[in-house]
């Protein structure tokens, strides 16, 4: 196995379940169009509900209009998806840019925090099932252990992901 970050079998299985939801055909590939449409759906939902300027928290237009995946193709199979993610996570500059974009997408109300309501709304858009606000609060608490207000910051998300990444790095 190559040095760097590698997902566990459990993480791959979880990612594969999500991947399949966005695979519009039976060939097991996602298209850049489906990813762009998902980003546009999330941005549209956010801009209809937030009180501050959408440009303050929106996704970089170049990211939302990406024509190809990092491998240069307009389609991506699961194995390529996983290897691309692992490679990106192993590169700090790529990881930080992706983290910032992801955080802005998850911050559904544009508050600068991710709260239970944000996770519930995002889960609904993604077709995921959260059993309720309490489950969303538990997810946030796992990342933001010292938070009394149930708000996750980008700093706590970064630390949470780094802890998970560090525990999965190859020796």
From TrEMBL:
Highest rank taxon of the organism: Eukaryota
GO cellular component: myosin II complex
Record keywords, A-Z: Acetylation, Metal-binding, Repeat
GO molecular function, one term: calcium ion binding
Residue span(s) of domain EF-hand: 10-45, 94-129
Keyword Acetylation annotated: yes
Gene3D superfamilies per the UniProt record, alphabetical: EF-hand (1.10.238.10)
PANTHER family: CALMODULIN LIKE 3, MYOSIN LIGHT CHAIN 1, 3
Annotated protein name in UniProt: Calmodulin
């Amino acid at each position: 196995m190559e040095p760097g970050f590698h997902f566990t079998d459990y993480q791959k299985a979880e990612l594969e379940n999500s991947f399949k939801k966005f695979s519009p055909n039976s060939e097991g590939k996602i298209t850049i169009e489906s990813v762009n449409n998902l980003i546009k759906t999330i941005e549209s939902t956010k801009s209809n509900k937030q009180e501050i300027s959408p440009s303050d928290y929106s996704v970089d237009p170049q990211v939302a209009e990406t024509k190809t995946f990092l491998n240069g193709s307009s389609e991506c199979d699961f194995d390529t998806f996983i290897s691309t993610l692992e490679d990106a996570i192993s590169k700090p500059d790529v990881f930080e840019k992706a983290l910032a974009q992801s955080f802005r997408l998850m911050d559904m109300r544009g508050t600068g925090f991710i709260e239970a309501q944000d996770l519930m709304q995002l889960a609904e858009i993604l077709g995921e099932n959260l059993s309720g606000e309490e489950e969303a609060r538990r997810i946030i608490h796992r990342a933001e252990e010292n938070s009394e207000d149930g708000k996750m910051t980008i700093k706590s998300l970064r630390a949470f992901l780094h802890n998970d990444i560090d525990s999965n790095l190859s020796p």
